[in-house]
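Lesson 9: reading folded outputs for more than one chain in a single document. The general rule is that every protein is listed as its sequence immediately followed by its structure tokens, and records are never interleaved. Here is the first one.
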Amino acid sequence: MNIIKGVRWMQKLTDEDVDLKKLNEIKYDFTTNTKPVYQTEKGISRAVVEEISKAKNEPDWMRNIRLKALDIFLSKPVPTWGPDLSELNFDELTYFIRPEDRKSNSWEDVPKEIKDTFDKLGVPEMEKKYLAGSVAQLQSEGVYSRLRKQWEDRGVIFMDMDSAVKTHPDIVREHFGKIVPPSDNKFAALNTAVWSGGSFLYVPSGVHLDLPVQAYFRMNGALEGQFERTLIITEPDASVHYIEGCLPAEELISRGDSFVPISSVNMSEDVMTHSGENSKVIRTFERPYDGTMMTFTPLSSGNAFKLTVEHPVLAIKRKSVAASRKLRNGWRSEVSTKKLISAKPEYIRAEELAEGDFIVYVAPTGSKDSKEMTPQVLKVLGLYTAKGSVSFNKALKTNVLVFSFGKSKKEKELATDLNETIKSLGEQVNITKVRSGYYTVVSYSKKLIELCETHVGKGAVQKKLSKVLMELPPEKQKILLDNYLKGEGNVYVKKPFKSVMVRASTTSKMLAFQLQEIIARNGIFANLSIRKGGEDTILGRMMKRRDRYILEYSENKRFSQVRKVGNNFYVPIRKIVREKFKDKVYNLEVKDQNSYLVKGFAVHNCTAPTYSQYSLHAAIVEVYVKKGGKMRYTSIQNWSDNIINGPTKRSWVEENGKMEWVQGSLGSKITMTYPSSILRGPYASTSNLNVALGIGPVWKDSGAKVVHAAPNTSSKVVAKSISGRGGMSVYRGQLRINPGAYNSKASVQCDALILDNISKSNTYPHNEILEESASFSHEASVGKISEDQVDYLMSRGIREEDARSLIVLGFLDDVLKEIPLEYSIEFNKLVKLEMNKYGAVG
């Protein structure tokens, strides 16, 4: 199971172009002009707790739980073993604010002022792209909840916690407060007494949810408290698994001048984006994947590409641009050209697209002229691409450039014209007619050979155009293209519309995609198809044929299923195939544009949701992982600097169950969070991956707790912390292997990076290994940024502040690679922002 918890506090602008000295220009640090319909007075008392329960119309059993918890809260002191909490005044907080009288399960029904708030936070967009379900909470109560019907039909329940108390009281009462009782700590007691909102998730036995569900929480003012309650129950063999948007290793990514496998793309390299311009890759992703892979075959079948089901593709739904004419038998709905060319492409999950929908092929827009590339030189290079080769003459012990032509009159004229063109360039050349009647143009000019090899390469299969040629203005590229087609192309009339078609083929895959791009830059979309190679017997000899890549287009085609808008071509999907896939997949984070091109078609590199702010966070998360169940809980926060964060998170893991905590903590003044797992059944396992960033006058006190209470259980804790500008980062962990937990295994790894001499990092591990057959390891390290690493990166053209940020992100990589991709991308940006905010790097 994987739940993404949207505790997102106050996200600031994170684009690289933002002047970090102007941090008062805050994009999401906003307040909404909503007028609450009800709120309690400040402070906590028995009257306030009863008022909250009455306002919610709760059953007596819940009110009694609240009142007992209040007595425990009042009896317990504020913790003093960690950061200083003396400024926290419980009597100054407002514990319950109701923003609206009703809840909605349709986004259209949410009141406008509240809807505007969550539109800014990206709720409807994220729900459309990535989520199986979402719950949105403003201040103390949920205002919206929705679960996709396909999961409702399978018995999954996902809603705000207040509604769950009323609609599923038996399930809630059985599980509420059992893992985290109010007596656990002062903040747990406070939450139990005044809790409001939060989320409830129930997954029936055997159901595997393959999309994340997410809860969004936002406070709308200072001196408010938010005390959401999260209860998650996975019945035996149930799971929610988040599958990230990615591509297989061999998919070709456009760099504008060439196409390379996505697995070979490195950080700081340029890739072509949906805008038609290049942008730098600022992070690459690689991870194992076991799920459904989709193959999209557009009208141009040679551009077929693969990606995972949730990866967003720039597209237009066919039904949104359909003509009003009646459908013909067996035909898809006809398209209104007027509607199509005025439609705005959107990023749509791959699994939501259908055959006939339009995806977007992008022609690069930039150009860079070269004086060397005269019309004569481009003619030679065009014909060399089609007809030329370089070989070594053993007798003369030198390379020779040969152009081979046919024996027709047209071929003779072409050879003669080339011969004269080379002479006009001042190079030695001769033309000959061989015995069979074919013509050859031969040159031993080292300059000419170097020109051809540099800009086109050698060997038919390996030929590809240079960066210089691919960046030329379109009108110059057309000279190259026209001469290539004279040598390799043929023209025919396609009936019944008498369209004059141009067709050419090559055995070079790279060259085929480059030529398609050049044709597109000249305003025409060329269909690319592949004729598969194989073995043939010719005159008694076995011959092996290579794959041929065939380009076909028309300049006067009267009817076309492809539409051109600007530098975009809207190409219909011809076929979609789904298949099981188990291997590594890859993705990129691209600066600013957040997109890249797969064989010319635009896809997104995923986006992230936004954050909110408030004064005190004291949530409780209770997770039940029953026999064979799987659960991943990801929480990423970037709170404002006056927030005190003290949630309690705990799971019970039964036999063969698996619990994964992934936590990223950037903002807040004080954070005290220690996700816990109690391994109650044999072969239960847990992992806890934690990143804490303590930059500036803050205290990050975080860690993990694990109890091995059954045989053959296993646990892994990885904690990464960074301290800078006087910040304090603390790892505080507890690990216990009970007697009788035979053959259990546990490991703890704590790594700290200190950025200066005024910051601190402390480690307080408490490990109790009470079973002799158990194995346990504990590693801890503290380090600083290596100046040698900084110098090396700067020597590669990277600015000093960017170099230091890259080193920091590399230090965090163990955890970042486990965070779902769209959140990892945003997390990277927020790390850079937080570090630059206080001048922690650079």
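And here is the second record, again sequence then tokens.
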Amino acid sequence: MPYTGGFLDIGKDYQSKYGFSDPEKLIFKSKKGLDREIVEQISSIKNEPDWMRQIRLEALEIFFKKPMPNWGDTELMNAIQFGEIYYYLKSTDKTEKNWEDVPEAIKNTFEKLGIPEAERKFLAGVTSQYDSEAVYHRVREDLEKQGVIFLDMDSGLRQYPDLVKEYFGTVIPSMDNKFAALNTAVWSGGSFIYVPKGVKVELPLQAYFRINAKNAGQFERTLIIADEGSSVHYIEGCLPEGEWVSLGDTFCAIDEVKPGTKALNSLGVEAEVIATRKRPYKGDLVKIVPVSVGNAFELTPEHPVWAIRRPRVSRARKNRSQNRWDVSVNKILDAEPEWVPASQLKVGDILCFPVAAKTQDHLEISDDLLQFLGYYLAEGSAFFNGKTQVPTVTLSFNIKESDKIEESKKLIHVLTGKKAGEFRVPEKHESRVYVYSHELLALSWKYCGRHAALKQLHRDVMELPPQRQKLLFETYLKGDGSRHLRESGHTLVRCSTVSRTLAFQLQEILARNGIYAGMQVRKAFQETMKTGRKIQHREAYCLHFEEGRKVCQAWKDEKRNCFWVPIRAIKKRSYVGMVYNLEMKSAPNAYLARGFAVHNCTAPNYASDSLHSAVVELVARPGAHIRYTTIQNWSNNVFNLVTKRAVAHKDAIVEWLDGNLGSKLTMKFPCVYLVGEGARGEIISCAFAGKGQHQDAGAKLFFCAPHTSGTILSKSISKDGGRASYRGLVKAYPGATNAKVNIRCDALLMDKESRSDTYPTMEIDGRHIQVEHEATVSKIGEEQLFYLMSRGLKESEAVTLVVNGFFEAFTKELPLEYAVELNRLIQMEMEGAVG
């Protein structure tokens, strides 16, 4: 899914990409409004037991009798037109276990949302709901064998009616509130999960919810039971090991990147890596092969790549058919790039190859030293000689290369003040230039390293101005390259190295000098000479480009400081193993895979205008652990009215992680009843309220037993006149001896028109109870922005950095996909916040 920050300016097509709706193709659609007939019709179509039908009808009567809440944003709630809603839509007649069997139109919708089959393969289980019904469901076989039940709620009722009857409505009864009654009357879809005693579900169970039809309601019902000593993580809606990423001055495998490392982002700017995430994966990898085949990289199908679609920039040829090179350079330079999932890329699409932007001269590195280092990289070695341990630096040349030999001797004399020696080996056609110098050995090791396959340039060299770096490249080319005049009049320039890191560094130096060099990889092989001598050739990396060529296979973009490089081929292979992703401290949250710009993976859950009123019931038996993660980004006309509640028995742990963006009105207050000794509840939430939005969110903790504990952390941001409210309740009963709770509510206001409210309620009836509460309301100060902008950030970048830091306490608790997703959603919401 695309990153959209103001400074990348790629969010203009947000609505067309993610605010889409598909033509309705339904096998059943109820009439508008709600009455007894519709409720009975829903129950009949689902072929439910009579006791469930009676529960529905009783809940309907409660819904009609209960008034609308007289607290909260009553004006917005009273605007809900219950009579204009379709309460039940059925898009398919069954829930599929095979993704290929899902109706094509529905499957395409979830593909658009970035939920391809390959992504599902790393999850323990997944359910997808489209309008009122689950359309796809799958759970891993090994979990089924352990007795884990993960079904859509309708299937759970059919297959395990007694288990559902035992727990359904016990945590949230119909009488609880008007919207809980509404959900109980018309519920459809959702998830049913049962984890047996002692079973640990290591990978998350996940569900996706999508409302497609206009004026539709979605009323999913989720019931999760974690039996004694079990654990489960439920979630509502990368690159393989060894893939290389750019750290600016060098390259390394993504799985070796550590937090705090600086890496190049898609703007060619260094940014700090705050986390390296990994997850198990089983599925296809997509291999993207650009015209420079040595830069081919692999990633999971959903991983976004910064690209321009070829049809947008192609040009017609009158006298011959089109090929991938028939593009308009002017169209490329004017086009708006986009983040395209790897699985959607086509041959001929054009990738972004950013050029490192940082330049810093280091005067201690003289021009003479740069020219010498070029020869050293190509032909040199530095070592302590034998038993004498004399520091020695040697350069090897063909015996006929007298001009290079003489130039290298002069450079050595300038740098050391010593006269270089020369040792000839006629039978090998070799001449070795050498000098005994501790100083030159130290400089060679410092700036270039040692051993041919391990040589790489020092950070200071990689930061030098491009014209100075060219001095090094020219002597390197003399030592280990060639120039060949072709019949076309162009000069083919080639050089090679057995150091992969050095090859990518030289490619970067050429790019900074306005040249995109292709890279080929020559595999290792063994050669037998006429004399019978066998020579083992290492894997080599060959750079090549043509001087003077007007028609190029890569195009320089001065405005964006990058090259645009077309895709030559796309391949796939099966993969089982770990995949990795990098989380960057500052936007854009992107990095470079073998030089090309890629983003993080996953996509959010977008919806059409409607009413979303869900009920979620969690039961954590003694010693069980449930974590429930939600990140929702509804359309701005959705009323998102949800009731979530958990019961935690002795020593059980329940964690709610709740992210709320979008919607017209959200009212959601995750709750935990701590009914067993030693139980713990944790509720961490964040909310972003934009123009015309009210995020009324919060948390509730009920302490009913001794030695229980809880934490509430609430973060909210209001922008463009949006309103965010924290509404919390902490109640400790007399038996809750030695209970502890910590509440922290932080609000950030982006402008004078926005609003933040805090409504904390604490009822402490017991003794020896520790309660801590802290609330802050702040705004982004001019001093903060001035400080960050004085460090080189644009104003929009500075604001986004502050916002991301504000939400960090929430995002660090999320799995990779959701941390990345939330950051991108916030950046979308922040677009246009400045200027």
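What the second record shows: Residues 498 and 728 are 63 Å apart (CA to CA).
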